[in-house]
Amino acid sequence: GIEALVKCLSSSDPDVQKNSIETIAQLLLDYKTRSAVKDAEGLAPMLELLKSEFAIIQKLALLALDRASQDADNRGALRDLEAMSKLVDFVAHPEWNDLHVMAVMVLANLLEDSESLELVKETGTLKRLVALITDQPPPDEEAKGGGAKGGKEKSGSRAAKKSAKDGKQKGKKS
Fold first, then answer.
1. What span, in angstroms and rounded, lies between the C-alpha atoms of 143 and 137?
2. Label partner for 97 (CA 20 to 30 A): which of 24, 54, 89, 163?
C-alpha cells in the first residue's frame, strides 16, 4: 500500500523514486488518499525529492505536493516540516527555473493556512520569495549590505544568471 510506496521514495535508485512518486501523485487525486500519505509519513520524503538531480523526479514531487497541500491537515503537517522555506530555497535555484511555477503553486496552497501565512511573515520567508520573484535583494539584505559587496552582489549575480537563462521570458512577467 501507501507505506511501501513511501518507503520507496527514499530508495537510492532514481527509477524506484520516480515510479513511486508518480504513483503517489496519481493516488493523491483521490482526496481520501491525501490523509493516508500524511499518516504514512510520506510528506517529508516528498520534500526531500526536491533535491533530486533528476528534473522529472522534482516535477513529480511538486505535483504530488501540490495535490497533497490541497488538504488542510497536510498543510499543517507541511508547515511543521518547514516546507515553505524548502520551497523558497527551491525557487532560489535558477537552474530549476522551469519548475518554479509549480513550486509557487504549492506555496500558494500552503498560504491558505493562516498559521503558515503568519509564519512566513515572521521568518522573512515571504520577503525572500518576493525578492526572488522580482530579482531584487530582500530589504534586510540590502540594509545589511549597505555599500559592501556581500548580499547585493550575490543577488545581482543570481539575477544575471536568471536573466540570461530566461531570455525572452523576462519580458512576459507581470
1. 10
2. 24
DSSP 10: T
Range with the lowest mean pLDDT among 14-18, 20-24, 43-47, 167-171? 167-171
Residue in the block written with cell 508547515: 79
Residue listed under C-alpha cell 516546507: 83
pLDDT of 66-87, one tens digit each? 999 999 999 999 999 999 889 9
* Look-up of cell digits 543577488: 155
Whether the Cβ atoms of residue 58 and residue 67 lie closer than 8 Å to each other? no
Instruction: State the average pLDDT over residues 53-68.
Output: 97
d(CA 47, CA 61): 7
The predicted model scores a pTM of 0.72
Amino acid type, 88? V
Higher pLDDT: 49 or 107? It is 49
The answer to whether 79 and 120 are in contact (CB under 8 A) is no
Of the candidates 103, 99, 120, 102, which has an alpha carbon nearest to the alpha carbon of residue 111? 120
CB 102 within 8 A of CB 57: no
